[in-house]
User: Which sequence fits this backbone?
């Protein structure tokens, strides 16, 4: 399986994703420059975290106009796997591949810490190897992670089981006290209707290495490779 | 352009003395142009030339078997760490800009220190900061504290370099004059060391990065002579950082250094284009010729004086091999960066600057960069020194209720947990952070693709340095080393940021001189080289100077991840030991300051030889895997150190407490509990390891005392048969963890 990690100007988790995939997922992985237009050789596209174009406008608002994004959109519409992490999630929202928007954290501050995530659905290739309700310990690091969507949109998300991860406490209970940024319904990650596009604020690439404290992030990457293998043999 | 006659008043406004001006006349053998005067003025400022401090800074030991680039030779020093790898690190102050505009002041400080590291060819992988503010209940202190933290977060998070550690102190001495010292560390392969040198006649000089504006120009008073009032209003005195631009610069420069097209590289920091051109030429024993018309400018009608002295951020000077220009321009193009060839290297040793075809500067490069004045300032012992030392502390009443004292100390913002600060910093990007902030006495990052890890810390207690600058300076080094050792590392080197008041005041200079000697003697004794740093004078507010605050940034090496040791207790039933002396003394302590509002007394005795033995003993026990936690005993003394180990070891459900029993204790109880005797480390170990600890103590000739045992729920201290502390860990944790946030909300 070949992963491609997109490098926007200002991406800063690009190498972290690359390293985690190469070192711990043991998959082939390459960088994709933001000016590049050829994506069809990849089996999964990663939009990494960072501050694309400095995020001086809205987060992700400029990156969506990058030459590579037209092709990411086409790639995703054809059913290709796309995972957007943190700034990558914000770019997916700005580009319309996923519904909703990001507001500033209710604390109005950047927040970097380990949080716990509840796996809401295992219907996506990104979570197929997890157990429904499984609690993952994964770090967040963002200023704008307060997910918002209007009522109608939220109904759609729920109806199509597009909510993939919710912030929860260590026992998996979803409550206000386990919400680090004010996100609607504690939403930490959502997917497209088809389930082939995942956007998530927490950073799975930061917790693939036992030395760094948690390897729960690796479960998400492993789920991708296992799902891909199944898709190939099916 | 109209020629300006240099008057004594203009010379004075440039901060140059008549003698210094006389020296300029000798060097040039003629009167300088106004632009040349500006060049000398910034290059001979204390900031660039260290003219008041250099004599004493030479006392620092700067060599060692692992030192690859020495202090002062380049932007930052470099130390070999084996496996063909090296580290480059440096600390720098941004105190005054942060006092005026905390957000941008702190942000641009981060930008500057990062540039210093990647110009050496190193990839920056960690940031730390050492911050000092007045009392946190003051509204203006809250504003400064919040702004500085946001500024650091803004720059560091965006550029994607983790802020992995640091320290924050709150003390009235810093009211109105906060200290913002920032540290950056980078990693490089030996063969990638890049020097700030302009060599090879005909090689091209490139300007890279942001455009030049009128921000941060020195000699502002003078500028108003030359400029109209109208243009004066356009000037922005506060520099604005652009971390996105710096991220592009960083990546482009590191990519550039992988080619063989680059001769030298230097950032345009303090004194901007002036400093970078004459220093690179001076180091390369060359001359340099630049044409200001090619310098990208963001404002119109800038004079050569302004262009040369501008301190606009995110700019680099790159010396490119003749014929390799296209290769370099292609890389800049790839990163959408503007690069402009502004000149070339010459062989006459002269820095020449042209503007609209006219030569505006013609100065021997070496004369500006290396012939700066050097002063031996006079000094005298301050009146307070003997008086405070002799202060009778026996008159200080011992409290009846030590539980309250403990809670007050844990909630003291200087001692309290700093998660409110470090959670605003991305401390995990680059995925090397092996120990999360606050969990150990120093930050620990791993080195990818090796077994090794690096440990780093910043330390200084300004109150100690005020009460006894020589011992305070020694303690700053000793405590930094102790913190490094507690994580399982061996110290490699230090960088220092010397924050003092006005050096023209003899009593201030006495503090400076003695701190430097203390640091220097401690470094020699430990065998740790100083690899660079920064001096910041004139840190004064209307009430006087800040406490002398020579911040030590220290880096250590951990051989493999098995040795990584954190501060929290690990398991119920483990035994707790103190490596180091038990002694009652409250002099200079945080306890004395917070509980009794007294700043004074003689510091507890400090013996650097004992300190070294304590550290060797601790390191040996870590390497034998005999101990499970190690925590240095600092502000708040023994009880606070033990309480912190309890809190750090506790999870959301299980709370680790202690039961500690001390017998045959002599001296004041408060001095035993909260005194700040140095050279002490609280460790915990499985009961079966007790013999190993006692044995190690004997071997290293240091006291090792069994204090008690790790329990659940309660912190309990019994001294000479009397229970003096009995507190739920939960309450202590709430006070320690919550106080800063409570004060700010």
Assistant:
């Amino acid at each position: 399986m070949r992963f491609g990690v997109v490098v926007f100007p200002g991406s800063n988790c690009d190498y972290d994703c690359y390293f985690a995939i190469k070192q711990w997922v043991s998959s082939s992985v390459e960088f994709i420059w933001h000016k590049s237009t050829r994506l069809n050789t990849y089996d999964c596209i990663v939009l990494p975290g960072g501050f694309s174009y400095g995020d001086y406008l809205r987060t992700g608002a400029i990156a969506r106009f990058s030459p590579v994004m037209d092709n990411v959109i086409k790639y995703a519409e054809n059913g290709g796997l796309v995972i957007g992490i943190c700034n990558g999630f914000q770019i997916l929202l700005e580009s319309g591949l996923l519904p909703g928007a990001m507001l500033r954290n209710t604390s109005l501050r950047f927040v970097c810490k380990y949080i716990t995530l509840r796996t809401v659905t295992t219907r996506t290739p990104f979570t197929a190897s997890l157990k429904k309700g499984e609690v993952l310990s994964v770090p967040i690091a963002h200023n704008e992670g307060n997910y918002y969507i209007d009522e109608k949109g939220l109904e759609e998300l729920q109806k199509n089981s597009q909510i993939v991860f919710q912030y929860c406490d260590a026992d998996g209970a979803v409550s206000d006290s386990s919400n680090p940024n004010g996100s609607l319904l504690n939403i930490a990650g959502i997917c497209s209707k088809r389930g082939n596009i995942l956007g998530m604020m927490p950073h799975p690439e930061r917790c693939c290495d036992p030395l760094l404290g948690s390897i729960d992030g690796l479960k998400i990457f492993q789920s991708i490779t296992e799902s891909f293998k199944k898709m190939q043999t099916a | 352009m109209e020629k300006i006659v240099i008057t004594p008043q203009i010379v004075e406004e440039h901060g140059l003395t008549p003698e210094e001006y006389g020296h300029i006349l000798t060097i040039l053998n003629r009167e300088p142009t106004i632009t040349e005067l500006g060049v000398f003025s910034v290059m001979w400022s204390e900031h660039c030339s260290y003219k008041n401090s250099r004599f004493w800074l030479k006392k620092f030991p700067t060599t060692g078997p692992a030192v690859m680039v020495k202090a002062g030779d380049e932007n930052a020093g470099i130390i070999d760490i084996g496996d063909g790898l090296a580290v480059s690190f440096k600390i720098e102050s941004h105190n005054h800009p942060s006092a005026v505009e905390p957000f941008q002041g702190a942000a641009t400080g981060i930008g500057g220190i990062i540039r210093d590291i990647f110009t050496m060819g190193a990839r920056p992988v960690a940031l730390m900061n050492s911050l000092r503010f007045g009392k946190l209940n003051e509204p203006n202190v809250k504003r400064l504290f919040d702004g500085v933290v946001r500024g650091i977060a803004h720059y560091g998070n965006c550029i994607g370099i983790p802020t992995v550690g640091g320290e924050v102190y709150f003390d009235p001495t810093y009211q109105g004059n906060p200290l913002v010292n920032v540290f950056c560390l980078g990693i490089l392969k030996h063969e990638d060391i890049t020097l700030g040198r302009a060599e090879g006649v005909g090689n091209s000089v490139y300007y890279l990065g942001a455009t030049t504006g009128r921000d941060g120009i020195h000699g502002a008073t003078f500028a108003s002579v030359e400029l109209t009032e109208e243009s004066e209003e356009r000037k922005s005195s506060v520099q604005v950082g652009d971390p996105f631009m710096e991220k592009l610069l960083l990546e482009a420069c590191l990519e550039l250094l992988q080619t063989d097209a680059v001769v030298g590289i230097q950032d345009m920091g303090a004194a901007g284009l002036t400093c970078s051109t004459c220093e690179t030429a001076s180091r390369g024993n060359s001359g340099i010729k630049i044409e200001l018309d090619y310098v990208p400018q963001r404002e119109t009608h800038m004079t050569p004086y302004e262009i040369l002295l501008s301190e606009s951020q995110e700019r680099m000077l790159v010396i490119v091999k003749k014929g390799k220009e296209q290769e370099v321009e292609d890389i800049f193009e790839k990163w959408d960066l503007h690069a402009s060839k502004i000149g070339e290297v010459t062989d006459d040793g002269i820095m020449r600057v042209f503007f609209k075809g006219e030569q505006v500067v013609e100065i021997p490069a070496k004369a500006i960069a290396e012939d700066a004045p050097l002063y031996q300032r006079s000094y005298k012992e301050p009146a307070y020194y003997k008086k405070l030392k002799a202060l009778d502390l026996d008159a200080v009443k011992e409290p009846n209720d030590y539980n309250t004292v403990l809670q007050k100390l844990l909630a003291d913002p200087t001692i309290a947990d700093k998660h409110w600060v470090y959670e605003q910093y991305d401390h995990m990007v680059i995925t090397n952070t092996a120990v999360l902030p606050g969990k150990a006495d120093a930050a620990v990052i791993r080195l990818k693709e090796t077994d090794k890890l690096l440990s780093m810390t910043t330390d200084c207690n300004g109150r100690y340095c005020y009460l006894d600058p020589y011992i305070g300076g020694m303690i700053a080094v000793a405590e930094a080393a102790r913190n490094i050792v507690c994580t399982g590392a061996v110290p490699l080197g230090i960088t220092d940021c010397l924050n003092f008041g006005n050096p023209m005041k003899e009593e201030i200079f006495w503090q400076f001189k003695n701190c430097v000697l203390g640091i220097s003697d401690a470094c020699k004794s430990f065998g740790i080289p100083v690899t660079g740093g920064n001096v910041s004078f004139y840190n004064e507010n209307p009430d006087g100077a800040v406490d002398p605050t020579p911040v030590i940034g220290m880096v250590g090496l951990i051989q493999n991840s098995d040795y990584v040791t954190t501060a929290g207790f690990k398991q119920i039933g483990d035994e707790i030991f103190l490596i180091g002396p038990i002694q009652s003394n409250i002099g200079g302590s945080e306890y004395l300051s917070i509980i009794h509002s007294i700043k004074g007394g003689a510091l507890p005795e400090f013996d650097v030889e004992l300190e070294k033995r304590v550290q060797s003993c601790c390191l040996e026990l870590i390497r034998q895997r005999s101990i499970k936690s190690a925590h240095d005993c600092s502000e708040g003394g023994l009880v606070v150190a033990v309480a912190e180990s309890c809190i750090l070891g506790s999870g959301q459900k299980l709370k680790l407490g202690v039961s500690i029993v001390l017998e045959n204790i002599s001296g004041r109880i408060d001095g035993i509990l909260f005194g700040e005797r140095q050279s002490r480390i609280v460790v915990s170990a499985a009961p079966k390891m007790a013999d190993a600890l006692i044995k190690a103590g004997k071997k290293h000739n240091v006291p090792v005392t069994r204090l008690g045992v790790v329990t659940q729920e309660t912190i309990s201290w019994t001294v000479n048969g009397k229970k003096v502390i009995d507190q739920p860990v939960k309450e202590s944790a709430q006070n320690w963890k919550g106080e800063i946030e409570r004060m700010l909300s």
Summary: The CA atoms of residues 385 and 467 of chain B lie 6 Å apart. The mean pLDDT of chain B is 92. The longest strand of chain B covers residues 123-133. Chain B is about 35% helix and 25% strand.
